[in-house]
Amino acid sequence: MAQGLNALLGNAYELRLIDGDIASAIDETVALALITQVDYCSGRLHDMKKLNVIAQRAGTRILWDLSHSAGAVPVSLNADGAELAVGCGYKYLNGGPGAPAFLYVAAALQAQLSTPLAGWFGHVAPFAFDPDYRLRLASSASSAARPPCWPCWRWKLAWKRLTACRCRGCGRNRWRFPTCSGNSWTNTAAHSDFNAYPRVNTPRAAANFHSHTSMRIRSCRR
What long-range pairs does 13-21 form, CB within 8 A, spacing at least 24? Predict the structure, then answer.
């Protein structure tokens, strides 16, 4: 998405892929940082509150990707000082294929929100069929179209169940299984040689992982 947007803007911006310490990469030269709260490759859970503070000091905005965290771990956007976030409904929110995505914009920024997609449900009077687009509310600017009814209904049911459960414990129990199911597996996974296989990529510290475990397996495609 970032590459496509940059191409649309004539490649006017420099894109940097950070594979390591994100906190040290955020400085006054960064306009926007795109950070997935939970890295899908490693399962690492990033410290949202800490990174938001660092970004604020540097004058950088962070757009958080909640695709692998919403519904799997507690997410506190307001409490952690997040300004922008996006996520999907088909993963841990259990909406299934076709489930709607969602957008979060802090209240202080909503009046500044705009979108190049003049969506039907973002119009102040969609059935007036005016030739010119009139935005209903800044918070409705992202309403490009109505999602399919069936996935929305399914997502609503899943959401009721999710709000009644404590999901983080399930992820921790799942983490214990591959690392403790056998001595040979554990010894191999913890080997200091990066090329040792199979290897668990997910951090072992409880504060740094969530509900999926990432493993590196040699020639797994064969």
Answer: none
Between the two ends of the chain, the Cα-to-Cα distance in Å is 30
> Domain map of the chain by residue range?
2-162, 168-216
pLDDT of residue 216: 67
In total, the chain counts a number of residues equal to 222
* pTM to 2 decimal places: 0.71
Which residue bears the tokens 């504060």?
207
DSSP state letters, 7-38: HHTTS-S------S-HHHH-STT-SEEEEESB
pLDDT tens digit string along 56-65? 999 999 999 9
Per residue in 145-171, pLDDT (tens digit) is: 666 666 666 666 666 665 555 554 444
Q: Is 44 helix (H, G, I), strand (E, B) or coil?
A: strand
CATH code that applies to domain 2-162:
3.40.640.10
Structure tokens at 221: 């495609």
Max mean pLDDT among 82-91, 134-143, 155-164 falls in 82-91
Beta-carbon contacts of residue 58 (< 8 Å; ≥ 6 apart)? 26, 27, 28, 30
Q: Calculate the alpha carbon distances from 66 to 8, 107, 136, 214 in Å.
A: 25, 19, 27, 18
